[in-house]
């Protein structure tokens, strides 16, 4: 039905009229979708997770904890859908599916006996009212950094859309969960909730901060230990261990722990679930085919997440001497990256280039999802960021390449790697498609391509 409505939008309704009536159009679509499926969220406890980074991993962690605790749980994220233990991939290239499919999924979850549904909730979804007829009970804030600025006409509008989820939950006297380390958290704390849960990592913010006075349930994460195969941290007297790597994943775990506590899950069960959780495909995923260098695939596609990945690779000593296991500064970090086309967030391209030049020893620029943009122009704009790094400018002719064909670019990156190096492939993660011109989608599986090349 949504396809039929989109046909009218594209070919029947005049564009000026559509722009004027766009909010009403989106609102009505959301209502119709919920009405057709009889408002299924009313029979579920809905946990909405919003923010810029970490939403997908956090959603999967929450699902795993609840499901492992005997509470059958559904899941909707950028990467995957789940009903209990049944899982399938999200091939839509949308964080929040269209209103009809979204409501259909919630109906299916309710029908199959789910008690909870964890929904990754995007600013785009909120802007288009996809969240409107979903009865959220818990709102979760991961973090906020600039993204989708063209779509929202600025960062403040982007933040405002995110906050709307908390306003919606507050109107239902629900629960809020917050990353208290984030500089934008004050905006999310403003809506009054029945209960507020928050977490601080390494006491980066003091619990005496008056900003947090309304948050009675605050977790302090301490004694973080990072390595190339496990991450450990403590919450009070409780020690946690996870297979998720990097400090940014400590934040994801902390958020999930706070949500679980808000739902009265025992500490023992949370501890077990955090330890048994398996990394998500394409999220800080390590590919090991017996090679003597590390290969990491990650979805990082904006400046902060890109920098977090590069920092994590260094923090966890993935760039090391294979003999001694110690950090070896002669070893290299080889990075492959691109940037999304379609006119999206062009401002971030030189910044991502600057970050890559700061952290990486060798760089390959390549396609990500060019859509209708000229891929060479996208790479040129990323390249512009290199010149902001003085030392890099002196080496620019010998340690970076521009290769449009992503598979060939991956081959190049892997061919450069030697013992103890780390190859970091970002931008696609576990996505199943690459979007090119004329609305075409090319089947894509980064992990399989890497394995295929490593076996040659």
Number of strands: 19
What structural class do you assign from the helix and strand content? Answer: alpha/beta
- Tell me the strand order in the biggest sheet: 4-3-2-5-1-6-7-8-9-10-11
Uncertain spans, ≥5 residues at pLDDT below 50? none
For the sheet with most strands, the description reads: 11 strands, mixed
Number of helical runs? 16
The top-level CATH class of the largest domain is: Alpha Beta
* Beta-strand proportion: 15-25%
Intertermini distance: 47 Å
Number of domains: 2
- The percent of residues in helical segments reads 25-40%
Q: What is the CATH-assigned architecture of the largest domain?
A: 3-Layer(aba) Sandwich
Radius of gyration: 22 Å
What is the H level of CATH, i.e. the homologous superfamily of the largest domain? Mur-like, catalytic domain
CATH topology of the largest domain: UDP-N-acetylmuramoyl-L-alanine:D-glutamate ligase
Shape: globular
Give the integer mean of the pLDDT values: 89
């Amino acid at each position: 039905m949504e396809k039929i409505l989109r046909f009218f939008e594209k070919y029947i309704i005049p564009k000026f009229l559509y722009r004027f009536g766009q909010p009403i159009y989106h609102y009505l679509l959301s209502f119709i979708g919920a009405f057709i499926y009889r408002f299924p969220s009313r029979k579920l406890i809905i946990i909405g997770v919003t923010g810029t980074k970490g939403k997908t991993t956090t959603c999967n962690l929450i699902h795993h904890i609840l499901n492992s605790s005997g509470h059958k749980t559904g899941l909707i994220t950028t990467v995957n859908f789940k009903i209990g233990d049944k899982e399938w991939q999200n091939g839509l290239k949308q964080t929040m599916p269209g209103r009809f499919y979204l409501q259909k999924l919630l109906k299916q979850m309710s029908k199959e006996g789910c008690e909870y549904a964890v929904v990754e909730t995007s600013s785009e979804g909120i802007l288009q009212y996809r969240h409107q007829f979903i009865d959220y009970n818990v709102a979760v804030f991961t973090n906020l950094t600039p993204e989708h600025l063209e779509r929202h006409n600025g960062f403040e509008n982007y933040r405002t859309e995110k906050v709307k989820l908390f306003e919606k939950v507050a109107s239902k006297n629900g629960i809020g969960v917050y990353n208290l380390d984030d500089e934008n958290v004050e905006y999310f704390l403003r809506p009054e909730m029945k209960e507020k849960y928050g977490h601080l990592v390494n006491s980066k913010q003091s619990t005496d901060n008056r900003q947090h006075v309304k948050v009675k349930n605050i977790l302090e994460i301490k004694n973080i230990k990072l390595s190339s195969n496990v991450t450990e941290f403590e919450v009070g007297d409780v020690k946690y261990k996870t297979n998720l790597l990097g400090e940014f994943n400590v934040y994801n775990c902390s958020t999930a722990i706070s949500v679980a506590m808000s739902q009265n899950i025992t500490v023992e069960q949370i501890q077990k679930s955090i330890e048994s959780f398996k990394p998500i495909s394409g999220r800080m995923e390590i590919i090991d085919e017996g090679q003597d260098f590390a290969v990491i695939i990650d979805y990082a596609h904006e400046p902060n997440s890109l920098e977090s990945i590069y920092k994590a690779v260094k923090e966890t000593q993935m760039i090391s001497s294979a003999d001694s296991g110690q950090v070896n500064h002669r070893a290299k970090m080889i990075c492959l990256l691109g940037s999304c086309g379609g006119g999206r967030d062009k401002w971030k391209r030189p910044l991502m280039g600057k970050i890559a030049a700061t952290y990486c020893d060798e760089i390959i620029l390549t396609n990500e999802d060019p859509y209708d943009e000229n891929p060479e122009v996208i790479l040129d704009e990323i390249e512009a960021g290199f010149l902001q790094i003085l030392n890099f400018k002196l080496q620019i002719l010998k340690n970076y390449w521009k290769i449009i064909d992503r598979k060939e670019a991956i081959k190049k990156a892997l061919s450069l790697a030697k013992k103890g190096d780390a190859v970091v492939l970002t931008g696609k993660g576990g996505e199943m498609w690459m979007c090119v011109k004329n609305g075409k989608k090319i089947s894509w599986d980064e992990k399989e391509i890497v394995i295929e090349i490593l076996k040659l």
